[in-house]
Structures are given as structure tokens and as C-alpha cells.
Write a structure and sequence with these properties.
Blueprint (H helix, E strand, L loop, with lengths): L1 H26 L1 H21 L4 E10 L8 H18 L5 H9 L4 E6 L5 E8 L5 H80 L5 H24 L8 H34 L2 E4 L14 H26 L6 H7 L4 E6 L8 H4 L4 H16 L7 E5 L7 H14 L4 E5 L7 H5 L7 H6 L5 H4 L1 E4 L5 E5 L8 H5 L2 H13 L2 E5 L7 H8 L2 E7 L5 H13 L4 E9 L6
Helix pairs in contact: 1-8, 2-8, 4-5, 5-6, 5-7, 11-12
């Protein structure tokens, strides 16, 4: 049972809290709407101040050469990894600048790899829609150059080493050939000299035999054969300029060395070509999957979206500010605040009235304000069950909280109930009832206190209004230099006793409790009504006022919450 009651209490407290914040939002709805409208306007103006930006994109497929030993899955995953790598390459410092220089257009290019796909998406943002396509084409070309540059750097060291070896072997081949030519030239010269000597000797011998008296024909024939062979060898030597290598060990060595160098040269050239082939095979291809397009409309600013988002953000901020203000606000705003913070009953909730209508009970008896005053009258009647209420003091924690207006309207509703009512302006410092009711204030309460011989009947003024409003008024009279002494005097007590015997209800419109005057009167009244202005009267001031009334042993009837916005009344 206890748990059930606790749950009901918690739910009630939560409901009251929600009502409190809802009322606060309704009370400040105009400010919330204004902030939201200003935020939306700010978003709109900000969007209009931005430079329109256009965006375009295209997809590029990254394809690596297929290797025989690679499976389809391995090949696909390899392409996906390479696509991710190259998307990062397009984000390096200087890439965008190189694209701008190549295209001659102003803009920004970005790249990202598609999830689990071998595609790189190139996107361009530019203030000129016609620059989007050139920027994307330039980005593709620059990216391809970057890839080739990476591959060149990767194989550069190997190619440099091979080229160095090829150049060295080429020099060795040239030197060996030169040495071989020089050796051949030396041997040919020696062979020529030898053949020339042999030919000369054979020709001399042949001439001697022919000049003899008895020539030997057989010997002459042999010499002629040898001479012919030498001449043929000489002619061949002149034509070929070469001698048999087998006849010279140095030539044999040089020719073997030359053959070795040539084999090395051939192998190095083959290796270099293989490296170049590997470089070409290892360089992925960038295939344009879709052509870039020229954007038709800017993607920023998104005026409509920005306006709505700014308005919603401002609305949320305004609502948050209202809730925070309500949470930390130390003013009387709701019934729950009064019950929790002050611990006294609320006898009346007076709606915020129309400007200039100080007596709604008289001018519009069917209005919500008039009904609120009638409810206050009824609640006071219930308060008088235990003890009679003839003299009721109306005061407030501070100044300007509507005491006089509440007092005048309360007097009016009492008079409509056929009660004899006297409304006394007991504020001897800043009286206002005579202005509110359009009465004279030449003589009044202060004069009756100071002049014992002055009769009250001469000072009391009747007020006759519309809709059966009829009550008497005792204005403050002249402003005395010592209002506190007058109100605390024995004569003031005699006047209160006298008027309480003449009228059914005496309403004392006193000053605020910031001054000691009201404390003096509260001790002499049958009950005290504390008037608070919604959203203006601070809880601390109300506590201080109750402490002062308690020190005066005043009977506090309850609080009247004044000037409640009509839509929050409840």
C-alpha cells in the first residue's frame, strides 16, 4: 500500500513538473518562436552569402595484370587493396595542386575507394560547373602519372645497376675489339713482309734458272708453282687483312675474351628487358568506368535545408534556454512552486488582465478575471469558518505586485455578494486607490489618526460602479512624515475596531513587506493575504515576507498568484 502511494506521488510530481515546463514554454512561446525565426533567417542569410559550389564524380576501375599462379579471389582482393592504396595516393600533399596546374581550372579533387570493390571514385568540387569535367580528367591523368612514377622508383635501382653493367661490358667489348684489330694488323704486316720476301727470292731463283745455259725445266716448274701459291696467298692477305687465329695464341685469347663479353652483354640486355616487362606487368591500369558529367545545380549552399536546420537548432536552443531558466528561476510561477517552496495554500489565481482594465469585475463580470476574483472570495469564505474574517490585510513581498488592483476587485466581488465592504488605503507612503477609483484624497486615514475629533463618516467615500458594484473607500489622506508611528498608534487600533463594527468586510491595502508598515497592520488584522506577481516575485522574497508575518504573529490566509498568463491558468 505504501509503495502504491509512493508511486502515485512520484507520478503526480512528474506530471506537475511536466505541466510546469509546458506552462513555461507556453508563456515564452513568443520568444521561442522569435529565436527560431531569427535562427532560420540566419541560416538563410548564411546560405545566401556562400559561394555556390558544384560537384561531379566518376568511377575508375583499378586492374592489375593477371598472373598465372594467382587465383580469381586472390586477384580480386589484390585489386581491391591496390584501389585503397591509390585512393590514399590521391590525398597526398600536392596532388590537388598538380591537378589544378594540369587542368588550368580552380577546384578541389578528392578520392575514395569503394567498399569491397576495385573502384576508385574521383570527385571534384568547384565554383565553376564547367571546370568539373576538366578537373576530373586531369585528376585521372595525374593519378596515372603518380602510379607510373611509383613503379619507376620501385625498379629504378635494378635498372640503374643493369645499365651500368651494360655500359661497362660495352666498353670492354670495344677495347677487346680494338686490341684484336691491332694484333691482326701486326700479324698481317709480318705475313706481308714474309710473303714479299719469299716472292722476291722465288722470282730471283727463277730468273737465275732461266738464264742458265742448260735450264732445269723440272726445277723451274716447281719454283713457278711455289711463286704462284705465294702470290695467291699475298693477294688473299691483302683482301681479307686477316691471318689464321690458330697461328697466334694472343689472337685466340682475345677472341675468346670477346665472345665472353658478348655473351655477358646479351644476358644483361635480356635481364633489362625482363625488368621492364615486369614493371609494365606490375603497373595497374586505370580504366574509366563512367564519363564525368557537368553538374547542373550547386550542391552547396543548400538554402532550404540550412534554413530548416538552423531554425530547428534555434528552436531547440530556445526551448533548452526556457527549460534551464525555468529550472533555475527563483520566482513564483506555478501552484506547485508555492506548495513546495512556501508551504501555504493558494487562495486565488488571477489571470493577466487586459491593458487599462483595472476593474474587470465591474467592466466585464463574465470574464476569466472576474471569475478568478469570485473564486478568491469563496476561498476566503471557507477560511472564515474557523475564525471570523472582518479585517483582511492585503500585502506583498515587494513593490508593484498588484495589491491595490486585487484589493479593489476583491471589494467589488464582496459587494456583489451583498456584503458591506470598506476598502482602506493603508499605504501611507505610496497610495494609489484614489487614482484607481478616481476619488479625491484630500482627507483620509492619516487625518483620522492624527485628529481624534474628525469623524470617519466625513472621510469615507462611497464608490458606485456598474454591475451592482457598490462599496465604501477610506483613502490614505495626506502623506504624513511618520507613517509607521501612525499605523502602530492606539488611534489606528480604535479606527479598526470602529470600522469592523460598521462593515461586514474591511480590506486594508497596505504597503509591501519590504517596509515595516504592513507588519504592524498584520498583527491587528483577522487575516493576511500575500499577493505575488507571477514570474516576478522571488521565492526568497516570499519566504522573507512570511518570516516577517510570522514574527508579527499574523494569520496568513494564503497567497494570491497575480498576473498569470491566461493560457497557463490552472
Amino acid at each position: 500500500m505504501i509503495n502504491g502511494q509512493s508511486t502515485i506521488s512520484s507520478a503526480t510530481a512528474l506530471l506537475e513538473t511536466l505541466k510546469r515546463y509546458s506552462r513555461a514554454l507556453l508563456r515564452w512561446a513568443w520568444l521561442v518562436a522569435l529565436i527560431a525565426a531569427l535562427g532560420a533567417l540566419g541560416g538563410y542569410l548564411y546560405s545566401k552569402s556562400q559561394t555556390p559550389m558544384y560537384a561531379s564524380s566518376m568511377r575508375v576501375m583499378v586492374v592489375r595484370p593477371i598472373k598465372e599462379q594467382s587465383s580469381d579471389l586472390t586477384y580480386l582482393m589484390s585489386n581491391i587493396d591496390v584501389a585503397r592504396t591509390y585512393s590514399q595516393l590521391a590525398q597526398t600533399a600536392g596532388f590537388n595542386q598538380r591537378v589544378i596546374e594540369r587542368s588550368g581550372k580552380i577546384g578541389f579533387v578528392a578520392a575514395f575507394a569503394m567498399q569491397d570493390a576495385q573502384f576508385v571514385v574521383l570527385s571534384a568540387q568547384t565554383p565553376d560547373p564547367q571546370a568539373a569535367v576538366p578537373l576530373l580528367n586531369a585528376a585521372l591523368a595525374v593519378l596515372a602519372d603518380e602510379i607510373r612514377s611509383l613503379q619507376d622508383d620501385r625498379y629504378a635501382q635494378v635498372e640503374t645497376s643493369l645499365n651500368s653493367q651494360i655500359n661497362s661490358i660495352s666498353l670492354e667489348i670495344e677495347q677487346t675489339r680494338a686490341d684484336l684489330d691491332a694484333r691482326y694488323s701486326l700479324l698481317v704486316a709480318e705475313e706481308k713482309n714474309n710473303l714479299e720476301t719469299q716472292i722476291f727470292e722465288l722470282e730471283r731463283q727463277l730468273a737465275s734458272l732461266r738464264a742458265a745455259s742448260a735450264p732445269n725445266s723440272q726445277q723451274i716448274s716447281q719454283l713457278q708453282t711455289r711463286l704462284l701459291a705465294n702470290r695467291q696467298a699475298y693477294t688473299a692477305l691483302l683482301q681479307t687483312n686477316r691471318v689464321a687465329a690458330s697461328r697466334d695464341a694472343e689472337i685466340t685469347r682475345l677472341e675468346r675474351t670477346l665472345a665472353l663479353y658478348q655473351t655477358l652483354y646479351t644476358n644483361l640486355m635480356t635481364n633489362r628487358e625482363n625488368v621492364r616487362l615486369l614493371k609494365l606487368q606490375g603497373t595497374p591500369s586505370l580504366i574509366k568506368v563512367e564519363e564525368p558529367y557537368e553538374p547542373l545545380a550547386p550542391y552547396v549552399p543548400r538554402t532550404g535545408r540550412n534554413t530548416v536546420l538552423a531554425g530547428l537548432a534555434s528552436l531547440g536552443l530556445a526551448i533548452g534556454l526556457v527549460i534551464v531558466f525555468e529550472f533555475f528561476s527563483d520566482t513564483l510561477k506555478t501552484v506547485e512552486t508555492v506548495r513546495q517552496r512556501l508551504g501555504i495554500p493558494i487562495l486565488g489565481q488571477i489571470p493577466f488582465g487586459r491593458a487599462g482594465d483595472r476593474l474587470p469585475v465591474e467592466s466585464d463580470p463574465r470574464s476569466s478575471e472576474s471569475e478568478a476574483y469570485r473564486i478568491l472570495r469563496t476561498n476566503l469564505a471557507f477560511s472564515a469558518i474557523d475564525a471570523p474574517l472582518r479585517i483582511i490585510l492585503l500585502t506583498s513581498p515587494g513593490l508593484g505586485e498588484g495589491k491595490s488592483t486585487v484589493a479593489a476587485n476583491l471589494a467589488a466581488v464582496f459587494s456583489q455578494a451583498s456584503r458591506r465592504v470598506l476598502l482602506v488605503d493603508a499605504n501611507l507612503r505610496r497610495p494609489s486607490l484614489h487614482k484607481l477609483l478616481d476619488l479625491q484624497n484630500r482627507l483620509g486615514l492619516s487625518d483620522a489618526i492624527r485628529d481624534v475629533d474628525m469623524g470617519l463618516a466625513e472621510l469615507i467615500q462611497p464608490y458606485h460602479g456598474q454591475n451592482q458594484v457598490k462599496f465604501d473607500v477610506l483613502s490614505s489622506g495626506g502623506l504624513p512624515p511618520n507613517p509607521l508611528e501612525l499605523l502602530a498608534s492606539e488611534r489606528m487600533g480604535q479606527i479598526l475596531v470602529q470600522v469592523s463594527g460598521m462593515f461586514d468586510v474591511v480590506l486594508l491595502d497596505a504597503s509591501g513587506l519590504a517596509l515595516p508598515d504592513a507588519q504592524v497592520l498584520a498583527a491587528r488584522a483577522d487575516g493576511t493575504l500575500l499577493i505575488g506577481w507571477t514570474g516576478r516575485t522571488r521565492v526568497a522574497a516570499a519566504h522573507n515576507a512570511l518570516e516577517k508575518l510570522a514574527s508579527s504573529r499574523a494569520r496568513v490566509l494564503g497567497l494570491v498568484l497575480n498576473a498569470i498568463p491566461g493560457q497557463l491558468l490552472g
